Predict the 3D structure of the following.
Amino acid sequence: MTQKQTLTVRDNRTGDEYELDITDGTIRASDVGKIGKSDEEPGLAVYDPGFTNTASTRSAVTYIDGDRGILEYRGYPIEQLAESSTFLEVAYLLIHGELPTREQHDQWVHDITFHTFVHEDIKTVMRGFRYDAHPMGMLLSSVGALSTFYPEARNIKDPQIRHEQIVRLIAKMPTLGAWSFRHAQGKPYVYPDNDLTYTENFLSMLFKMSEQKYEPDPRLSKALEVLFILHADHEQNCSTNAVRSVGSSQVDPYSALSAGIAALYGPLHGGANEAVLRMLKRIKTKDNVPAFIEGVKNGDERLMGFGHRVYKNYDPRAKIIKKATEDVFEVTGVNPLLEVAQELEKIALEDEYFVSRKLYPNVDFYSGLIYEALQFPPEMFTVLFAIPRTAGWLAQWLELVDDPEQKIARPKQIYTGERQLDFVPAAQRWS
Ligand code: CMC
């Protein structure tokens, strides 16, 4: 039997000692709250802006070891999934916790495929946006609007109803994402083609014009499949935390996911690959790389696409994406900025500044190059992230809904404002 682990804390204000249980390397905030608690005083609390050292949940979905550069979905290494699985199989794995049997897989793919269409009124909602609306703004609004089309979705305790919304969301995200792209181009929206695979259908809805049937190059749909697998989940990041936080109010999953999309919209989260592309364009040629690196070392700016809050090693997703760039460029021709990116990586990986700070390429370093080669404008990059992340958000949302330990998210604050001022009515203050 393993020995119970505890932490002894002495409150130097009173001399009282407390023994706190340590479970899975954590202490309970509620146990900390017993320290110094009396009828007059609240107990001690923990101050942690940005939750940098606070576990908000127990989760069996995604494992990350940032020091070793390990990422696993439900225990399966990301490298193996990217190499040999499909996005829909990975989505099943994330949602259900295990790989599907053949029958389960076929049923799952069938269900997702036959829910790709959206109500025509959603099209009207999307048409109402300005001609140059940002596709992420359109996506988050239209996903939120879906809750009004499926009011039964609010019955989040009913497993069958939950399952139906999960299928709908995974199925409809490519349709909504593609339509938000077509909208900005003034092109007609393309309906789903259910003969195609998930990524093929997405490419068809993005790029089909007058041809009878759109047939994407299999190397492109495969590359997109790999990118979708890599972006499917990443444990308790900002958008997942938003989904869980909003979902903890027991709202329907469409509303909870639109909060996740809103969080992803922000430049600190989903927008870094766009910044990488802008940086590469500015550097322009391989010869300008040494001077740029010097500027980074002098603190003038950051090398975008390098460094990560969690990974202090090569981001495992970056390695896989680097390989996918080769497959895409075989079809589209090499993006001349690849040479600049490779030179940056080569120099940075040898330079003491980056080595000592454990700064390695992250997932965004190469993905922007692929997206640009596929002719996506930068505003679409985050939409390409949101579509696959839907599977992860839903897996995390399901876990939340079934977790008896979870409560409505409601952090504490340290109040820094005034107290007990006397209100003077406007007529007196302004006279
Ligand atoms: N270029 C140059 N220096 C850097 C960089 C960089 N990209 N990232 C960190 N540093 C330096 C930083 O200046 C600091 O140096 P010092 O100790 O001398 O002050 C040290 O490294 C530690 O940096 P930090 O800001 O404390 O690290 P963090 O964990 O808070 O930041 C980060 C993580 C991702 C915000 C940061 O590395 C960064 O800004 N990178 C560039 C933006 C980027 O590529 N973001 C995409 C992240 S991956 C997307 C995802 O998974 O969702």
